[in-house]
Amino acid sequence: MVQTLIGHAHYQEDIKKSRFLALAAPVRSVEEAVQFITAQHQAQATHNCWAWRIGQAYRFHDDGEPGGTAGRPILQAIESQDCDQVAVAVVRWFGGIKLGTGGLARAYGGTAAQCLRLADKVAIVEERKVHCQCAFADLARVQARLTEAGVRIETETYTADGVAWCLAIESGRVAAVAALFADLTRGQGGWIVQDHDQAQAR
After folding, report:
1. Which domain holds residue 145?
2. Where among 60, 87, 119 does a domain terminate?
3. pLDDT tens digits, residue range 135-173?
4. Domain count, the chain
């Protein structure tokens, strides 16, 4: 089950006199990931390494450590914890003892993994957005039944004839909710499903 974080998390560990501080957060867009990574930058640290994954998009950075010893192990930690929509920064203050490439990879990856392991998480489900409308006469009944069915109403706009909603529905339940909506509105309601799924933490 793919998960994201509920909020920010951090974990610190000293490894052969070097201090490693991992900081993680949920991110919904590349812009959010970049903002988080930028905000965690420690000017006095020796290295500020990071990685993030949002769906099929990902990036990582070694910040002066030997190639493949920092950013990629952090990304692998995100993936091994079945996380998505997550950014992790690992800051290192060098303590005078070199760790070698294997030691660095274990330190960066292990610190990131422990940070994520200890963080509070929530499952990510695939949702479809649906635009629908119904008459005023059906509004209260339809809204109550949609809420009971676990549908989230994202926007609500009143029109001359009734109400227009943008709904978020778990992908596997769209057909069942569509049938319910048609029954409640006696086939008179409007129902348009957006083309693409969107991942949503729930």
Report:
1. 125-201
2. 119
3. 999 999 999 999 998 898 989 999 888 999 999 888 888
4. 2
Residue 131, helix vs strand vs coil: strand
Taking only the tens place, the pLDDT of each residue in 68-96 is 999 999 999 999 999 999 999 999 999 99
The CA-atom distances, in angstroms, between 61 and each of 6, 16, 66, 82, 86 are: 24, 23, 11, 20, 15
Residue 105 and residue 60 share a domain: yes
Residues 137 and 100 in one domain: no
Last residue of a domain, one of 84, 119, 154: 119
CB atoms within 10 A of CB 26: 25
pTM greater than the 0.90 cutoff: no
